[in-house]
């Protein structure tokens, strides 16, 4: 089984986002009582990156900052693998599902998921606060266990792109369509996140809510376009 | 990281590479004298030309064209697809705007009419396609999907024109941007009972090299820019070449001399030929290694699909033959896939 062994979240800056994410990751690893060198996989699931970075993966920057197995390849050397998953605010669920697959199918014991979003350029309209969530997931039985996930697509009713502001001479975010707003719903066993928040905040709020719960739990995220992801958990 | 035995398996049902029609010659974008120290860029790289998008084409359209070809070759309709995974690096629309949220794949699903398909993006620079193939493989092995379309559209040529506007004397890291080209690629995956139809080496990220190639929004202009420490990245990549091949050969129990086709990341003719020379020294001459970069430039995550398409056009492939896809991506990410050419390949063109 895959559990969330520990997590840490906080505000981050656009200028030092990788340093800030790495700091949260260190905190989560310390709480999970695992060494950074025991991390086999790093997945980054944020959408909005400083200056609209498209390569390399932000996960590789975090791996580098944390100095996780950063050495050349030899015949029997051990390595970490890093990549990004992007699926709007559902990206964090998708990353957990992917880690679950990796733990089932590869000899992955511990994974680091970092979900972070920052204002890509100073001139962009940005109704959020830059935020990151770092989670350590491990093969274990004790704790908040990930059971399964389901995904339901919606019409592409709202989306964002970058665009070049010819007056300010800089790339900014452009918002299209009307995003579907779902308010936070807390029930005995089910938590639906406030869809106007960033993915990392939505996941953090679920983790806080789940802290004193027992039994089967459900977490729902609805993204900007109305697509839904549901993760099932067991404590 | 080592592989664990699985119960369900996946296979590549079809693949396709798509190149836009417009041909742009290296001598026109990097004429002699345009690069410091009288470097002849065409001679340095072996890249004679590349393709560029036409009117109304962006990353989505390139991925769409490749996807339609892969679906047709796999005898499936868009509504048969359970999952679409995109791995484009560029993600640019026709106006050079980067698609951000919810995902590039969601745009492609809408365009394809893949009404039953779940969708998301995997981003891992030029190793994105092999990474996405592995993620797709895992969805099939767990029974979460039966048919997965892994696709990418790379509208990368704007970095060429951004680079041309800067001084190469002051910005030598902009020179490698002249080596790219536009293209699309797609693979259709399905369930198999044979564990050897699609397999993978161990994925590795050597993150000490993460700053060697970086792409961001251009400064003061629309579209992206790319900066690459070309020599240093080349040196780092060459250093890993033999260990990466040795590890995959051992893990998958392959005989190097018996592999029918080897396709490495298409960065430049000179780099591929040098890599082959080194591999010959270590293992002996392989049966066939493919080069298409001389006519296409480096098409990022789609390079293997574009090379496979060229191989199809030149009638290189027979059903049952095996192919090794070796990817390098900024990061530095190294990932290798090995697959068997599906039945029906001869009827695809």
Please describe what this structure looks like.
The complex is a heterodimer of chains A (235) and B (349). With 235 residues, chain A is of the alpha+beta class. Chain A has helices spanning 17-32, 58-66, 91-105, 199-210, and strands at 2-11, 41-44, 81-86, 110-117, 131-139, 144-152, 158-165, 170-177, 185-186, 190-192, 216-222, 228-234. In chain A, 22% of the residues lie in helices and 34% in strands. A ten-stranded mixed beta sheet of chain A has the order 3-2-4-5-1-6-12-11-10-9, sandwiched between helices. A two-stranded antiparallel sheet of chain A has the order 7-8. Chain B is of the alpha+beta class and 349 residues long. Chain B has a single domain, classed as Peroxisomal Thiolase, Chain A, domain 1. Chain B has ten helices and 15 strands. Chain B has helices at 26-29, 41-45, 59-73, 104-112, 128-141, 158-164, 230-251, 269-283, 293-296, 303-313; strands at 9-18, 22-25, 49-52, 83-86, 99-101, 118-123, 148-154, 183-192, 198-200, 204-205, 213-217, 224-228, 261-264, 322-329, 333-340. In chain B, helix 3 crosses helix 4 and helix 7 (230-251) packs parallel to helix 8 (269-283). The longest helix of chain B has 22 residues, at 230-251. Chain B is globular. The mean pLDDT of chain B is 95. Chains A and B meet through helix 2, strand 3, helix 3, strand 7 and strand 8 of A and strand 5, helix 4, strand 6, helix 5 and strand 10 of B. Strand 7 (158-165) of chain A pairs antiparallel with strand 5 of chain B, so a sheet runs across the interface.
């Amino acid at each position: 089984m895959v559990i969330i062994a520990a997590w840490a979240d906080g505000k981050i800056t656009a200028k030092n986002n990788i340093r800030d994410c790495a700091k949260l990751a260190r905190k989560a690893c310390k709480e999970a009582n695992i060494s950074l060198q025991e991390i086999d996989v790093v997945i980054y699931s944020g959408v909005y990156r400083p200056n609209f970075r498209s390569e390399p993966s932000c996960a590789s920057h975090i791996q580098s900052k944390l100095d996780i197995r950063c050495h050349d390849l030899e015949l029997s050397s051990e390595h970490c693998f890093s990549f990004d998953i992007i699926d709007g605010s559902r990206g964090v669920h998708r990353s957990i599902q992917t880690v679950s697959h990796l733990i089932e199918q590869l000899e992955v014991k511990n994974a680091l998921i970092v979900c972070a979003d920052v204002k890509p350029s100073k001139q962009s309209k940005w109704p959020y606060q830059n935020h990151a969530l770092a989670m350590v997931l491990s093969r274990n039985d004790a704790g908040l266990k990930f059971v399964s996930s389901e995904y339901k697509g919606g019409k592409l009713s709202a989306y964002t792109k970058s665009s070049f502001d010819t007056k300010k001479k800089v790339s900014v975010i452009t918002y299209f369509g009307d995003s579907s707003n779902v308010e936070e719903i807390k029930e005995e066993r089910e938590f639906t996140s406030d869809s106007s928040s960033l993915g990392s905040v939505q996941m953090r709020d679920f983790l806080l809510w789940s802290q004193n719960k027992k039994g089967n739990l459900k977490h729902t995220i609805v993204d900007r376009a109305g697509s839904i992801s549901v993760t099932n958990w067991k404590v | 990281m080592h592989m664990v035995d699985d119960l369900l398996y996946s296979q590549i049902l079809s693949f396709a590479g798509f190149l836009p029609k417009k041909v742009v010659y290296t001598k026109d974008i990097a004429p002699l004298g345009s690069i410091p120290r009288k470097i002849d860029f065409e001679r340095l790289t072996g890249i004679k030309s590349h393709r560029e998008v036409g009117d109304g084409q962006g990353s989505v359209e390139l991925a769409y064209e490749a996807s339609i070809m892969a679906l047709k070759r796999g005898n499936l309709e868009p509504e048969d697809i359970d999952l679409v995974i995109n791995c484009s690096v560029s993600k640019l629309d026709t106006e050079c705007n980067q698609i951000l949220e919810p995902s590039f794949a969601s745009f492609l699903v809408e365009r394809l009419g893949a009404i039953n398909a779940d969708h998301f993006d995997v981003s891992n620079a030029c190793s994105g396609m092999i990474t996405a193939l592995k993620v797709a493989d895992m969805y099939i092995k767990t029974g979460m999907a039966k048919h997965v379309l892994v696709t990418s559209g790379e509208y990368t040529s704007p970095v060429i024109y951004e680079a041309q506007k800067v001084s190469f004397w002051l910005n030598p890291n902009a020179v490698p941007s002249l080596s790219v080209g536009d293209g699309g690629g797609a693979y259709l995956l399905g369930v198999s009972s044979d564990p050897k139809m699609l397999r993978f080496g161990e994925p590795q990220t050597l993150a000490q090299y993460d700053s060697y190639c970086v792409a961001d929004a251009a400064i003061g202009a629309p579209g992206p820019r790319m900066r690459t420490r070309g020599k240093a990245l080349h040196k780092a990549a060459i250093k890993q070449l033999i260990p990466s091949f040795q590890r995959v050969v051992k893990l998958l129990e392959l005989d190097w001399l018996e592999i029918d086709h080897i396709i490495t990341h298409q960065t430049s003719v000179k780099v591929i030929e040098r890599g082959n020379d080194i591999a010959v020294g270590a293992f002996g001459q392989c049966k066939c290694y493919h080069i298409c970069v001389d006519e296409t430039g480096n098409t990022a995550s789609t390079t293997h699909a574009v090379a496979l398409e060229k191989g199809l056009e030149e009638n290189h492939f027979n059903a049952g033959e095996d192919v090794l896809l070796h990817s390098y991506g900024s990061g530095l990410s190294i990932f290798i896939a090995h697959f068997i050419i599906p039945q029906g390949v001869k009827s695809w063109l």
